[in-house]
Amino acid sequence: MSPRSQSFHHAEASVTAPRTDRRTNRTRRQLREALLALILEKGYDSITVEDITGRADLGRTTFYLHYRDRKTCCCRAWKPWRRNWWSRLD
After folding, report:
1. Among 37, 39, 30, 40, which residue's Cα sits nearest to residue 67?
2. Do the Cβ atoms of 73 and 32 come closer than 8 Å?
3. In the chain, what are the domain boundaries?
4. CATH code linked to domain 22-89
5. What's the pLDDT tens digit per position in 3-46?
6. Which residues contact 31 (CB under 8 A, 6 or more apart)?
7. What are the DSSP calls for 16-50, one per residue?
8. pTM over 0.85
């Protein structure tokens, strides 16, 4: 492959490659929504990873591919809300 075609190929790949896969985004959204719904129903302390994955209709392995634990999931679920809330204070 010539240097010119290599640079074109690299530029094309970087333009067309999405940041995060849609399936990844959908899975994370399902997990976060399940967690938030369960918090409203049962409170954070009584929720298990099994509760979250059951509500999201996903497996535990899938949960652990995306989050280390329920605390990490919770922190990431609240991040957009917090960002929006803080921006309104400015």
Report:
1. 30
2. yes
3. 22-89
4. 1.10.357.10
5. 555 554 554 445 555 577 999 999 999 999 999 999 999 999 99
6. 52, 53, 56, 58, 63, 66, 67, 73
7. HS-SS-HHHHHHHHHHHHHHHHHHHHH-GGG--HH
8. no
